[in-house]
């Protein structure tokens, strides 16, 4: 069994790889895991250090848009788990070309190579942001796609390409659409690690607009567990929402983060709202729960406490990355 994991040096992809290589997923117990990652500012081989000595891991630095390389790596692959993406909404607002290249063209390149090589399963890791914003209730998988940021629009485009490769060529593709993730090894530009690392350094934290935007927070381990259920037993051609974490406004999240590091509200610096800021995300997870027996397993309080502890104990991991984020000027 050979698995190709794209973006396996990023936040979620590296969690999946570490789990896969330490026995968390029985169907992958003896699998060879090939990681294809470009190592953009968001990717780091240091995320794979805990499994670096594992003989079943092969790391390839390269671009998913490189058709020749992707074609070569796809030979003999049974399962593709496709995480690689430009993933930060704020960066997509400043400039969206890289998002279209990687998220759309990169996905098409992988789908074509997977079809040519006859891979057994292709899991395309997408996001709930493709649905847009919802005032009340939750999205089921057949809800219309109304993405509002260049990031979510590029992800929606890649979702539709994935679907088309199933419809047109019968490629066994599944799409997962997950809510906001948190956990260790998340690049310190995303809200939870940004706030935690700022507070650990005694710096203020920037809160967008009125702070009342709502997100559903899911531990990265629950996301990867859901992805593996889909990889093992998801029906080809189907979409599965993953979520069921804890819905919080950004103000509520900020309060919890301040409490976790013993800081007060005076550390909060209100900033102008993000352009096109989605108000609320909420996925209905009835389908993956009923079909595949998925349940989130990590409660938010425990997961957040563990995550804050991880950042406080792993300065050597995030301090150079914060420098890298600033250097880009974005
Ligand atoms: N973070 C979340 O809350 C969340 C929620 C739902 C879905 N997702 C999706 O999950 C996936 C992973 O997200 P993440 O938070 O781990 O992102 P991330 O930014 O931490 O990691 C992305 C990885 O992809 C790599 N990469 C980027 N462009 C590449 C290219 N052209 N070729 C090869 N590798 C490339 C980067 O080097 C990095 O290692 C993305 O597809 C994202 O849309 C993320």
TrEMBL record:
It catalyses: dTDP-alpha-D-glucose = dTDP-4-dehydro-6-deoxy-alpha-D-glucose + H2O. Its EC number is 4.2.1.46. One of its GO terms (biological process) is nucleotide-sugar metabolic process. InterPro entries: dTDP_Gluc_deHydtase, NAD(P)-bd_dom, NAD(P)-bd_dom_sf. GO terms for molecular function: dTDP-glucose 4,6-dehydratase activity. Residues 4-306 form the NAD(P)-binding domain. NCBIfam families: dTDP_gluc_dehyt. This is dTDP-glucose 4,6-dehydratase. It comes from Prauserella muralis. The lineage of its organism: Bacteria, Bacillati, Actinomycetota, Actinomycetes, Pseudonocardiales.
């Amino acid at each position: 069994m050979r698995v190709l994991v794209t973006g396996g040096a990023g936040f979620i992809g590296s969690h999946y790889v570490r789990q896969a290589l330490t026995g968390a997923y029985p169907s992958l117990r003896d699998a060879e895991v090939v990681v294809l990652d470009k190592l953009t500012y968001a990717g780091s081989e240091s995320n794979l250090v805990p499994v670096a000595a594992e003989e079943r891991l092969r790391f390839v630095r390269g671009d998913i848009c490189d058709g020749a390389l992707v074609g070569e790596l796809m030979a003999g692959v049974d399962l593709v788990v496709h995480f690689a993406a430009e993933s930060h909404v704020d960066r997509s607002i400043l400039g969206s070309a890289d998002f279209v290249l990687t998220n759309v063209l990169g996905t098409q390149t992988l789908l074509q190579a997977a079809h040519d090589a006859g891979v057994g399963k292709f899991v395309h890791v997408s996001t709930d942001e493709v649905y847009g914003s919802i005032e009340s209730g939750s999205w089921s998988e057949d809800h219309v796609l109304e993405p509002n940021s260049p990031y979510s629009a590029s992800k929606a485009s890649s979702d539709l390409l994935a679907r088309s490769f199933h419809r047109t060529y019968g490629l066994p593709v599944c799409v997962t659409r997950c809510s906001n993730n948190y956990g260790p090894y998340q690049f310190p530009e995303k809200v939870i690690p940004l706030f935690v690392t700022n507070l650990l350094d005694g710096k203020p934290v920037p809160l967008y607009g009125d702070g009342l935007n709502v997100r559903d927070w899911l531990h990265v381990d629950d996301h990867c567990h859901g992805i593996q259920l889909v990889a093992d037993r998801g029906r080809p051609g189907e979409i599965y929402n993953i979520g069921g974490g804890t819905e919080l406004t950004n103000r509520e999240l900020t309060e919890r983060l301040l409490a976790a590091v013993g800081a007060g509200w005076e550390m909060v610096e209100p900033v102008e709202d993000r352009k096109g800021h989605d108000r609320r995300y909420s996925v209905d997870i009835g389908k993956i729960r009923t079909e595949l027996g998925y349940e989130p397993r990590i409660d938010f309080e425990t997961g957040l406490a563990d995550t804050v502890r991880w950042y406080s104990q792993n300065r050597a991991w995030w301090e150079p990355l914060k420098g890298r984020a600033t250097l880009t000027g974005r």
